[in-house]
């Protein structure tokens, strides 16, 4: 392609999705909501505290969507996350959320490596020694997905299709896109849930990766708008219903999922504005 020549539409499929009905308005709403957080006076001097609180609340919400709906204060006070299945789910969400922002440096060049790392971190130490070789890599033929929170979705595709679509997704990330970060994050999130490439923790990994994309794409560089909170606030039923629309592949279904993800970011931003207000009152 000649430098400066117009880009062929098919070279940037994510940009085309950004033009679906209702999506431009959703992107504008998200930008305004995120700007409200970054424009708060508390962010000028206490943004690390807001980021830390956003990570904690985001992880709690991600765990809730995975079936472990703990109170925020319970997550805050606990140190042992290996005692039972719910505790392990919360621990997985906390670890994956923290790892996501540590992977920014390699996401744009090696996204599949990042996904493998996020799954390894989320899965933690397996209960059975024989499960160690099942983590940190996509599932193999004959390996089933064990994820009750996603059981209502249509069954995941076979491993050959998973491999092909993961490669295609990685190609999109490496190539870059003119699409807003919100759109890229929503597509990455939706694809990972559609594929369920790992034997477990796909939801936690998908939500942590979406967080990473919002940061890497410049929409939320300080990771202070926990979209996971917004997804949880809208409810697991609506989350799965919106995802079901995405899985159809039709424009209305995909646009609905993008709008759902946009609303989640808006609600996450609202949560962080409330955190800023609380910090401001505490400092007064």
TrEMBL record:
SUPFAM superfamilies: Fic-like (SSF140931). Residues 110-260 form the Fido domain. It comes from the Bacteria. This is Oxidoreductase. It comes from Streptomyces chisholmiae.
């Amino acid at each position: 392609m000649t430098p400066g020549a117009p880009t062929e539409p098919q070279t940037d499929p994510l940009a085309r999705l950004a033009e679906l009905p209702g999506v431009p308005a959703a992107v504008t709403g998200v930008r305004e909501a995120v700007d409200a957080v970054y424009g708060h006076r508390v962010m000028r001097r206490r943004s690390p505290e807001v980021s830390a609180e956003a990570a904690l609340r985001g992880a709690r919400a991600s765990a809730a969507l995975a079936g472990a709906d703990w109170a925020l204060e319970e997550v805050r006070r606990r140190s042992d996350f290996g005692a039972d299945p719910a505790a392990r789910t919360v621990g997985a969400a906390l670890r994956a959320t923290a790892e996501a922002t540590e992977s920014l440096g390699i996401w744009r060049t090696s996204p599949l490596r990042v996904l493998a790392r996020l799954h390894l971190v989320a899965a933690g130490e397996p209960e059975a020694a024989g499960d160690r070789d099942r983590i940190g890599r996509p599932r193999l033929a004959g390996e089933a997905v064990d994820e009750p929170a996603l059981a209502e979705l249509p069954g995941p595709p076979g491993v050959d299709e998973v491999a092909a679509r993961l490669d295609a997704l990685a190609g999109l990330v490496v190539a870059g896109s003119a699409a807003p970060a919100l759109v890229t994050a929503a597509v990455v999130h939706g694809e990972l849930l559609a594929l369920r490439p790992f034997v477990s923790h796909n939801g936690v990994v998908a939500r942590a990766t979406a967080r990473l994309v919002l940061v890497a794409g410049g929409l939320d560089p300080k990771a202070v708008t926990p979209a996971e909170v917004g997804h949880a606030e809208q409810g697991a039923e609506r989350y799965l219903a919106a995802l079901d629309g995405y899985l159809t592949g039709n424009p209305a279904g995909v646009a609905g999922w993008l709008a759902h993800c946009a609303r989640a970011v808006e609600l996450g931003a609202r949560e962080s504005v409330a955190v800023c207000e609380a910090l401001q009152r505490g400092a007064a």
